[in-house]
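Researcher: Structure prediction, please.
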Amino acid sequence: MEQYLATVNEVTDFESYIGLASPMDFNGMVRHYYLRQGSYVGDIRINLVEKEKREFSSHKIALRIRPEIDRIEQQYGANIKIVELPPGPPVLATVVAEVYGPPQASYNDIVRVSNDVKNRLQQFAGVVDIDDMIDEPHKQVHFILNREKAAQHGVTVTQVANTLKTALNGQVTGSVHIVSERKPLLINVQLPRALRSSATDLLTLRVKTASGKLIPLSEIGSMQNEWGDQTIYHKNLHRLMYITAEMAGRAPAEAVLDMYASLDEKPLPPGYRVEMSGEGEWKITVDVFRDLGLAFAAALIMIYVLLVAQTGSLGIPGVMMIAIPLTVIGIMPGFWFINLFTEPVAGYATPIYFTATAMIGMIALAGIVVRNSIILIDFIERAWNRDEETTLAEALIEAGAVRMTPIFLTAAAAVFGSAIIVLDPIFSGLAWSFVFGIIASTLFSLVVIPVVYFLLMHNKPKPRDQIEEE
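Model: Predicted structure follows.
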């Protein structure tokens, strides 16, 4: 592992932050990193060099080191997560299962059902870094103050609390000014770790009485081991437990569907339910695609209204807009096709997903591909109305022959312009939507639109009144 880290260190800069000293960014705030306390938690942040100086993307580097990190986790019984800065809005985790119970359910009942949900997630392919927010049972040492004895000696509760706090957590009592230091150095008074780790040693600490005498804590109280409190989470006034996980090689939607299929096959006890659309990426995905779907529908309506106003017909705009669904024929199989050539990293697939930016690209294509249809049909009608001898079939053939080259050149310009951003981690989906959508729509439009126009208009008179004579 040391040799492996040395190799990784050639392309990365390591900075280690322990406990509360870890850096806080927006992603850390959403993931509640600020709640972590203690010397047993920490971050190792890897800052990669510029992408021009390395062979792999940040996501592939994370996949490459995952097997070694998993081996260390199993060897030492640790809980390690590999967290990548998200390209979009941060979430609590990529996959979040919210386990709710009935009002009468106890905390232990919710924990038991949550462990069942956690075990199911572990069986799904591509689901990694599975964790929960269940507090491990732990004991705490409480100092039980005998108030009667403390009152007899003139010792207050505040004195005892401050004495123990200073011994365990330390207390700043002043500062030292050194010429070589830019800032004053704080003087922190605290017992050594060996002395503050023993309850017996803590009882030997002394407090000052009202008469000025120092007495040990053992004379006015005793230490007692008790079970620590468990954190109970609430959301919308309902108790719940969070089960979190990350994805490697698969989309979060696939894990969500696997979970719902598992719940249908083996339901939870009555009164318990699992929500997958709460704090994870699934909620953002559903909300974004819902809003984009509504925007797509509104765009189609506006395009149709404009075409009706331009052509004065209710049927011809529908023929022109056939090019829009033809883009979907190219986009969806296109993503499947391009993923056939992606190479796995460390055994994990690296697919290119149909993301929100890809949906935005599909919406933008609606206006681009309709333009080709407008030009093609306009040329057909002009050729058909040029003289009495020209038939509709001849006009269709002539329009296809004349307009094919300009349409291909326009499509090629759009494809090459989009190919520049196919490697961008955020806008690659938009680029691939443009590439596959334009190619498919261009090829199909030259055939489908003339055929549909012929079926619609071959029994009708020539639309001379709709053509402006040149």
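Model: DSSP finds 15 helices and 13 strands in the chain.
Researcher: Thanks, that helps.
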